[in-house]
Write a structure and sequence with these properties.
Length: 161
């Protein structure tokens, strides 16, 4: 396959997955809302894109995911932004960009080892990594905030997580 065909395929894949991320972000398709928490499903197209396009493509899709998450802080979900705007930017964007990078390398590693199971293993491990990175940065910037401590009190525990 020629270099031009590969570039076209990569750009088409990134365009379609970016559109999917945008649709999922601004419709109920992308988030499962529970007691004050929003569980995201937006990591799925990022992981898929990272497997299909490699680390750079994964990071681009992760950045789209991250920036749309940050964009929601301007009207849809303002609580963390009002506490620490810079921390909110880091929590929203950095783990998502790293998700694309991690997922691409996980897929490359497991594709050589397990073949047909590489996608499943990559999806599971990348999801766990994303959760750990997101919750880790959330803890760094907001663990002592009244907002997160209020969640702990509401749940009857002293540990927010």
């Amino acid at each position: 396959m020629s270099s031009s065909t590969n570039r076209t395929r990569t750009l088409t894949t990134l365009g379609i997955l970016t559109a999917i991320i945008l649709v999922m972000t601004f419709t109920p398709l992308g988030y499962i809302k529970t007691m004050g928490l929003e569980i995201t499903l937006l990591h799925i197209p990022v992981i898929l894109g990272a497997a299909l396009t490699g680390p750079a493509g994964g990071m681009v899709l992760g950045a789209v995911f991250g920036f749309t998450s940050f964009f929601q802080c301007f009207g849809l979900s303002t609580t963390l932004f009002s506490i620490n705007a810079a921390g909110t930017f880091i929590v929203c964007v950095i783990p998502r960009v790293l998700l694309g990078l991690v997922a691409a390398y996980l897929y490359r590693g497991f594709d050589h080892l397990t073949g047909k199971w590489s996608g499943t293993i990559t999806g599971a491990l990348a999801t766990i990594c994303h959760t750990a990175m997101f919750m880790g940065t959330l803890a760094i910037f907001f663990y002592t905030s009244d907002y997160l401590q209020g969640f702990a009190a509401m749940m009857g525990t002293t540990n927010v997580f």
